[in-house]
Design goal:
The chain has 4 helices and no strands. By secondary structure, the chain is mainly α. α2 packs antiparallel against α3, α2 runs parallel beside α4 and α3 runs antiparallel to α4. The longest helix is centred in the first third of the chain and has 32 residues. The radius of gyration is 20 Å and the shape is elongated.
């Protein structure tokens, strides 16, 4: 087999997907799950200790995985669009976290 035949066979086996990109996506998914679990544990514990309020935490948890995924993609591909996406998602998650913690530490008004 010559070089071109090997490359052609490799592309066919990988369905024209870049092996490096697949590995980066795998790492991104792994990091996303870790961040989701850590954030879920923090909010779960905080809510048990303080007794409640509106739970913005669930939205922060769901969004944090996407933010992590976006940061990993940016760090490996260094594209400005990926950086903007990662920053926006991080700001969104931060706002949700602030809302969640604020609702936990301020007294709720019962009507």
């Amino acid at each position: 087999m010559n070089r071109e035949e090997i490359l052609c066979k490799s592309r066919a086996e990988n369905q024209n997907k870049d092996i490096y990109e697949l590995e980066i996506l795998r790492q991104a998914s792994t990091y996303a799950v870790i961040v989701l679990l850590i954030l879920a544990t923090i909010f779960f514990t905080a809510q048990i200790l303080t007794g409640g309020g509106i739970n913005y935490g669930i939205y922060a948890i769901a969004s944090s995985g996407n933010a992590t995924y976006a940061w990993v993609k940016y760090l490996h591909f260094r594209q400005s669009a990926k950086l903007v996406h990662a920053i926006l998602l991080t700001l969104f998650v931060t706002a949700l976290c602030v809302c969640h913690i604020y609702n936990l530490v301020t007294p709720s008004v019962i009507h």
